Amino acid sequence: MTRSGAVWESMLDQSEQRAVTRRVRYGADYNPEQWPRAVWEEDVRLMGEAGVDLVTVGVFSWALLEPKEGLYSFDWLRDVLDLLAGAGIGVDLATPTAAPPAWLSARYLDVLPVDRTGVRYSYGSRQSICICSPTYREKVGAIVTRLVAEVGDHEAIEMWHVHNEYACHVPYCYCDHHGRAFRQWLVRRYGSLDAINQAWGTTFWSQSYTDLDQVVPPRMTAAVANPALELDYKRFCSDAFLEEFLEERAILKAARPELLLTTNFMGLYKPLDYFRWAAQVDIVSTDNYTDPATAEWQMRSAMDYDVVRGLNKKVPWMVMEQAPTRVNWRPHNVPKGPGHMRTMSYQAIARGATGVLFFQWRASRKGAEMFHSAMVSHAGTASPVWSEVVALGKELAGLEDLMSAPVEAKVAIVHSWPNWWAVESPVQPAGDLSVADQLFWVYRPLYEAGVTVDFCSPDECLDRYEAVLVPSLYLLSEPQAANLVSYVEAGGTVVVSFWSGIVDEHDAVYLGPYGGPLRPLMGCDVLDVAPIPVGETLEFQWDSGENGVGDFWADVLAERDGQVVARITRGALSGRPVVVETTYGRGRTYYVGCRLGPNALAHLFARVPALRGKTSVQPGSGVERVVRVGDDARYEFLINHSAEERKIDVAAHGLELLTGMELGSFVALKPAGVAIIRHAGIAPLRRTG
Ligand code: GLA
Ligand code: GLA
Known about the structure:
This protein is α/β, with parallel strands linked by helices.
């Protein structure tokens, strides 16, 4: 008895709103191939006890499914699927292509990737793959076709899971297959060798190409390679993986078009342009392993989820993997604290996840991940993890009615992968500029004020947002800039930071004062840039008379048509503007010429209603707040990540869903406490407006 029809509601045909599932899916990666048959029965019984209703099967089972070239063995998999179906547990069936078997790599060396220095990787792990190898592609086609033919119509299957964490360990291969495919990609993109030379500015350092075959991947060179070539190589490699994904997808979709299809992303992961990828899946899924030993890890995890939710705003998303407690692949693996498995699962649900799954179901006895945490650990059901797993499963089963409520986000942060690739190049004025840090810089105060943001590509329509933040969007095409400009013209508010609008899509500088097509939004002229020595600050004064500090970077700004709202007070740039406000069309912009310190950023955000937040959540209190808005109710999530009890005023009376209690004016949350307050009858904006 498969549950797919009952659980996933019209996933594929809703264009206005993300499709939903009626309840939060709960489960894990399940690797029965590591265990004798008797354990499988025990597994299925325990899954029932834990409320597990979705497991990912088959991720790394190529060597078992095809033990010899062309010789297949699917009985064991059918057996697993039968067992799961019998227990009403849905299956997210994976193609096994992330770990080619030893016979394949040993016989066809060209399936193995080659690094920048020309060294070929060996096999004996996973992901030792040259994605452009024709042999690999042919063998993938064969095993995926066979998988579909053997078990594709099994009633247990709800979803297709293609490959695993594309580009995870070897994002760039530099072999001759890649060279050939890169040249074809370039011809498709540019049309001619002349156009390639033009785009890359190859007259610099005598790099002009006179024959297409001279163009090779950016292998080991004496000094830095051409940055435009490096940028195109990153674009190409992301596309090469995507092309292979689409081949697998085509085989699966041809057999069962009605099943949801996904591949697990890795959140804010640099090598793959997930905006392009997410357009090709029915449900976005992600793996989240934010390190609990990192400062502000809950906030970083929240940002990762907001990035993932924004990748494709028309489809649902889910957590495909998270660690129940700790991983084993960092040098020192700190576990999540008691209750954090629950708080972090609710963080995902608050931010719209339709499922929270773990890696993995049962801890391995052997292999590279034998000390990774699991739902069933080595100590078995006696482990404290198990009680948390069971309790969470029970609780999630009761959360049906909020699943169709979208996350409320009136602020957007603009992010783009090509920008990420280009701006973190070693040729930059500040080679230590980190895109993740820049995003987190503007994300932090909003998270702390309970203001939820969507992440958007510079290509998408931004009309639905009240304010848009543009941190260091160095690479911006003219159409992308026009998108931002027209958003402001129509009445939007934009905050643009330093080092934005510097180059076009070929990494060529827009001449004149910096900013190129974004200059209408800047209100001042960026004449030059001056990174600040590490440990030093930039001092300035607001128009209100208060002092402020920034660090990392200073623009050399000249006044133009905007209004100076902060001016530098010390040093070589004293007297120059550092924050400039401009009205443009019906909208407003703020240009920020340095990295404002936390207080200064709060000072700036206080000028913009949408960035202020109207919440009683105190910045620094460790309480996370997110709202989901349903047709007839608002759901306010409050999660206490701090080690203290917190009393939080709630906006209106409501029913707390986890305890069933009616709340008056406040809620008290213990450490690791969670409240979901249903405020009924508050008509959402999209209905009334
Ligand atoms: C050296 C080289 C120049 C140029 C500069 C940059 O002096 O000779 O071609 O690369 O470094 O600082
Ligand atoms: C990734 C992989 C899993 C497993 C986990 C361990 O997310 O997809 O196969 O290796 O990491 O944390």
